[in-house]
């Protein structure tokens, strides 16, 4: 059994102090606090130094035209304390060789010396110029290759143009292919509808018998079987050569002029006695050798007139839009004429109109052959038969 030792109060306090200092947990805690204190002090000192000296900024690089060289500047954003000792607008200029990745020249400059065009490359002299009050320059070690840049730019543009042209051609080819497929599907659909309607309203056999010999050249050109056409209708009571007065606001009234009273207009389709003719609005002119030429000067629409020289009338028969075109007129005697036309918008259709002037009737037929040729009857038959050189064949 141990005996208790009584210590005096001063000695007991000293022992407790020594035990506290030699306690490991207490020592580690104080060491941690010391490290945190030093880190905070160091960070604060760094912030103070940055604030005192100012932040460093660099301007955007400007390259020579060939990309061999570049210039840029660096500046200090000084604080209030540093402004007392440094010029506010002082910069440091750098001239760099971009190919060798090295700085060729540095110099302290003022802001006004490098603003705008004051700092620029001279392609002709292969120099860098700067300065407002005093002009300064630096000679570059290699000439600026302006011609090479132009050739490279031209080659790049040609490559880009070739790529765009190739893309455009491919898009056009694909579009034409898609349009061709769409048109063929549409033809099949319309042809089926036409056959169903033709079965309900076929062209009368007696009309085929007298009409076929009259328009034989046009039928043969497009390989049309007139017996497979259908009759659209018969209009009675219309006078196509009567003299009449224009109605208020009428846009399609045409007055008979003295120059219309002639039997020798080469582009017209005359009746056998040449007292009537149909004007298809074909513009022609004679050259110095006396040869007639189609001028190709047409409106997008086509106005077709019947001119009666005896009764002094000029009446509009039809006004075709851009998708239709009257190609020829065939006369059966002096009082009956047949007007043939083609509609080639999306689906090809052919129309036949028979005008009986004294009988005041108009019969209309429609034909749709199984195949279609893109050739123009007007250029290949109508104009050559009148010794007129077609406009398209002159190219």
Kindly list the characteristics that best describe this protein.
5-stranded antiparallel β-sheet, alpha+beta
Sequence stretches where pLDDT stays below 50 over 5 or more residues: none
Order of helices and strands: HHEEEEEHEEEHHHEEEEEEEEEEEHE
Structural class: alpha+beta
Q: Any idea what the shape is?
A: elongated
The helical percent reads 25-40%
Beta-strand percentage range:
25-35%
How many E-type strands?
Answer: 20
First-residue to last-residue Cα separation:
136 Å
- Helix segment tally: 7
What is the mean pLDDT? 82
The biggest sheet, with number of strands, parallel, antiparallel or mixed sense and barrel status, is: 5 strands, antiparallel
Q: Taking Cα atoms only, what radius of gyration do you get, to the nearest Å?
A: 49 Å
